[in-house]
UniProtKB/TrEMBL annotation, chain A:
The protein's name in its UniProt record: Signal recognition particle receptor subunit beta
GO biological process, one term: protein targeting to ER
Gene Ontology CC terms: signal recognition particle receptor complex
PANTHER family: SIGNAL RECOGNITION PARTICLE RECEPTOR SUBUNIT BETA, TRANSFERRIN
TrEMBL record, chain B:
Bilayer topology: Peripheral membrane protein
Entry keywords, A to Z: Endoplasmic reticulum, GTP-binding, Membrane, Nucleotide-binding, Receptor
SMART domains according to UniProt: AAA, SRP54, SRP54_N
Comp. bias (Polar residues): 199-211
A family per Pfam: SRP54
Native source organism of the sequence: Olea europaea subsp. europaea
Transmembrane regions listed in the UniProt entry: none
Cross-referenced CDD domains: SR_alpha_SRX, SRalpha_C
Protein name listed in UniProt: Signal recognition particle receptor subunit alpha-like
Protein origin, superkingdom: Eukaryota
Length: 261, 623
């Protein structure tokens, strides 16, 4: 029985093959090539789109003022140690990796594409290259040396929060107060309040300037009300971390929330 | 001695530091070096001086661009260490052999470094000796050669055996044996590279690797001798300079009756009454607040690149250049970059960038490109162009916020007036642009007051008063021949009395070399400690921009009585509408002072005040 069926199938297949061959021979070769080309091209396109999508879905940008500890956090996330210390970065650090704390986990863990962007203000224009692909932004603030840098930090933060990319895509932002292991560090509530106050002032002066400033396409908050981070279009959360001692559980949690494993 | 030697990536991770030296550095010289030198396109310079309380360091650095590594050596400034350059070069070579992007600790490099250091020190010592004796010393040849080979042997072995440092060959004989036995290509290569250099350095004084260090030594001696002499004469000269006050006398013309008084600055003048009735000038929105529409001009750019490329390809064969452009050239060398950089420098100079600055920029770009791999399908000229564009954008992007309104609001909260002083050389348009700024501030509902502190040039006060009347702004004036510092002080007091938010202080124009006037200016700044010192400069200026700004800054620093003097905070570029595409002055001024361009004056009316558009400037410069 089985053999007969297989034989039948074989014969049918042969017939089909012959038919197909005849059909192909009837079609002019140029059309054939064109068809093959179209098929190849579309698959190519699809793969490229897929690649890009994957990249855009899991990029996390670490940013903040110079000296707030971004590079240390980057290496803490990647290798679990700050190595021998860091100096001011001149170029972004980039890496796609599984977070260090998750390397021991079983099962498939999706790697994160992390970008540590230097804080020096001369390099700030390049941040626009990374923001369109970002799934989440981490704004690192130095909790110890906060007050002297408060204005500069809030200006930088204001710039990020009003970027068209950030507002449109509602990229979530984490305010990370770094260096909380030090005794003199400010609490995160204090930092949040100070930043809100500063941004409130900035809003007043920037809206006066807004028509001149092409960079800020969006205004922050609700007119007539004091600014609070809850008014932002995108979700702004606040957390604490310590890059040197490696206490970065809140940061890892945030990354995992937005880069789904 | 050497204080510290660091190896770190451009991303900022320290890969290796010298543990034996291990002195804690005072302050943070490395961070300061990166922030104020390497990121400001000054990496073409030879060294950087860092001053911290209790220490003064000199830093030297070198890049490995292909691997993205930076090597920095720190030493006390009083010691003129001759071997640092040499040592850095050797460390760079050895370290790049064992470097692996995945590795982050290189504890095994300690031994190699010790070796290299000893060797470099010995060579410097020898150089000194040979200088003293006056003829080359050759008897150390064998010994030193052995050392070098050992060093290089260590390096190559480590690479092969994955960091096992005990494998290194002991001396010359041992090395030879190894070589014969293994016939290892890698080692052979290292040694071959090493040998000719050693022969050179010991053979004669003019050995190629030696020349730099030798010259430095010689120069320093000469400087030591000559420097004292010149110092003495300079001191003498400055002492002799008389300190007399310029007193204005009434000039008597031949055929005119003698006027009793030249000072017409009484508050009420003849035609003053009627003019006050003029309605406040309102000419619409200041251009500061208008958006600018950028037109893309990339087509012409590309054409230009094309031309440059053609010139280059003519030299080499068509096929080889084609092949190179597809495969990507292995590593860029200085010689490859030279023609492209030369063309770029010329182009910058035709755009009125000061020569000195164009030169420095090109050096810095060369330093950042040397050793890099050329990507496929690119030409050297376009690579250089892209690097230069990046550098220019970086320079022109302000380091700090230039939001004056924000600062004014901050000052408002503290309940004191915001003081801005306008300084500059003669006839650049200080008063005119002061009026424009006043107009712009007024439009944003800020109470402005002018202070006429040009008590030197006749007519200056009247000029400012006319502006004040048209804009209906209060003006503080005390006539001529008063000390401008006192006038400004009184003006600020007056402003806080009548509740003005901003005081704009107009000063007399002065040449940067005029010491009495510069002293007066630094006194004015010291007495009043303004919130903003705005340097007003013409966009027409060429090479003189460097001199003006550097001298102004220097004089403000030198002549100030306070220990930490104020320098120029911002630049106002005037006459920008007259220069067409020669926008180089903007670049020169920003590069020299490090201060951002805050305003650009671009016309005759009050509304003609703009912000600098960095992108369009860069585009114009590279066109």
């Amino acid at each position: 029985m089985d053999k007969e069926k297989i034989e039948e199938l074989k014969i049918q297949m042969h017939k089909r093959l012959n038919e197909a061959q005849e059909f192909i021979q009837q079609v002019p070769p140029i059309q054939l090539y064109a068809a093959i080309g179209v098929v190849l091209f579309t698959t190519f396109l699809f793969t490229i789109i897929r690649l890009f999508k994957r990249k855009s879905a899991n990029t996390v940008v670490l940013t903040g003022l110079s000296g707030s500890g971004k590079t240390v956090l980057f290496y803490q996330l990647r290798d679990g140690s700050p190595h021998q210390g860091t100096v001011t970065s001149m170029e972004p650090n980039e890496g796609t990796f599984v977070l260090h704390s998750e390397t021991t986990k079983k099962g498939k863990v999706k790697p994160v594409h992390l970008v540590d962007f230097p804080g020096h203000s001369r390099l700030r224009t390049k941040l626009d290259d990374f923001l369109p692909q970002a799934a989440a932004i981490i704004f690192v603030v130095d909790a110890v040396e906060f007050l002297p840098n408060c204005r500069a930090a809030s200006e930088f933060l204001y710039d990020i929060l009003t970027k068209a990319n950030v507002v449109k895509k509602k990229i979530p932002l984490l305010l990370l107060c770094n260096k909380v292991d030090k005794i003199t560090a400010h609490t995160k509530d204090f930092i949040r309040k100070q930043l809100e106050k500063e941004i409130e002032k900035l809003r007043a002066s920037r809206t006066a300037l807004s028509s001149a400033d092409i960079a800020n396409e969006y205004t922050l908050g609700i007119p007539g009300e004091a600014f609070a981070f809850s008014q932002c279009h995108n979700k702004v959360t606040i957390a604490e971390a310590s890059g040197l001692t490696g206490d970065i559980s809140q940061l890892e949690q945030f990354i995992r929330e937005h880069v789904k494993p | 001695m050497l204080e510290q030697l660091l190896i770190f990536t451009r991303g900022g991770l320290i890969l290796w530091t010298c543990k034996e030296i291990g002195n804690a550095l005072r302050g943070s010289p490395i961070d300061t070096l990166i922030r104020s030198c390497l990121l400001e396109e000054r990496s073409g310079a030879a060294s950087y001086n860092y001053d911290a309380p209790g220490a003064s360091y000199t830093l030297k650095w070198t890049f490995h661009n292909e691997l993205g590594l930076v090597f920095v050596a720190v030493y006390q400034r009083i010691l003129h260490l001759l071997y640092v350059d040499d040592l850095l070069a050797m460390v760079k070579r050895e370290f790049s052999e064992i470097y692996d992007p995945k590795r982050t600790s290189y504890s095994d490099f300690d031994d190699i470094f010790q070796q290299l250091k000893k060797e470099a020190e010995a060579r410097a010592e020898e150089m000194k000796k040979s200088k003293q004796v006056g003829k080359p010393v050759n008897n150390n040849l064998v010994k030193k050669q052995g050392q070098v080979m050992k060093g290089s042997m260590d390096g190559s072995n480590k690479k092969n055996s994955g960091g096992d440092s005990e494998n290194g060959g002991g001396d010359g004989e041992n090395l030879k044996g190894h070589l014969l036995e293994n016939g290892n290509f890698n080692k052979n290569h290292v040694i071959n590279r090493e040998l000719p250099r050693m022969v050179n350095s010991n053979g004669k004084e003019n050995g190629s690797s030696n020349v730099g260090a030798f010259d430095v030594n010689k120069l320093q001696k000469i400087r030591g001798k000559g420097g004292k002499k010149t110092d003495a004469t300079v001191n003498k000269g400055s002492k002799v300079e008389p300190k007399k006050k310029v007193v204005k006398k009434n000039r008597v013309w031949d055929d005119s009756p003698i006027e009793p008084k030249l000072d017409f600055t009484d508050p009420v003048s003849e035609n003053g009454e009627e003019n006050i009735a003029i309605v406040a000038a309102d000419q619409g929105e200041s251009m500061m607040d208008k958006e600018e529409i950028m037109s893309s001009e990339s087509e012409s750019e590309e054409e230009d690149i094309g031309k440059n490329g053609k010139v280059e390809t003519k030299k080499k064969g068509w096929f080889s250049s084609m092949f190179q452009s597809i495969a990507g050239k292995s590593n860029l060398e200085k010689a490859d970059l030279k023609p492209a950089l030369k063309a770029l420098k010329d182009r910058l100079m035709t755009k009125n960038v000061a020569e000195e600055i164009a030169e420095k920029l090109c050096e810095s770009v060369a330093a950042s490109l040397e050793g890099k791999k050329l990507a496929s399908f690119t030409r050297i000229s376009s690579t250089v162009q892209a690097a230069m564009e990046e550098a220019l954008v970086r320079i022109l992007t302000p380091r700090r916020s230039i939001d004056i309104l924000r600062d004014v609001h901050a000052a408002q909260e503290q309940g004191k007036p915001y003081v801005a002083v306008f300084v500059g050389v003669n006839g650049v348009g200080k008063s005119t642009n002061l009026a424009k700024v006043a107009y712009w501030l007024q439009q944003h509902k800020i109470k402005v007051m002018m202070a006429a502190c040009d008590t030197f040039r006749s007519g200056a006060v009247e000029q400012l008063r006319t502006h004040a009347r048209r804009l209906q702004i209060p003006i503080f004036e005390k006539g001529y021949e008063k000390d401008p510092a006192i006038v400004a002080k009184e003006a600020i007091q007056e402003a806080s009395r009548n509740g003005s938010d901003v005081v704009l202080v107009d000063t007399a124009g002065r040449m940067q070399d005029n010491e009495p006037l510069m002293r007066a200016l630094s006194k004015l700044i010291y007495v009043n400690s303004p919130d903003l010192i705005l340097f007003v400069g013409e966009a027409l200026v060429g090479n003189d921009a460097v001199d003006q700004l550097s001298k102004f800054n220097q004089k403000l620093a030198d002549l100030s009585p306070s220990p930490n003097p104020r320098l120029i905070d911002g630049i106002l570029l005037t006459k920008f509408d007259t220069i067409d595409d020669k926008v180089g002055a903007a670049l020169s001024m920003v590069y020299i002072s490090g201060a951002p361009v805050m305003f650009v004056g671009c016309g005759q009316s009050y509304t003609d005040l703009k912000k600098l558009n960095v992108k369009s400037i860069v585009k114009t410069l590279l066109k």
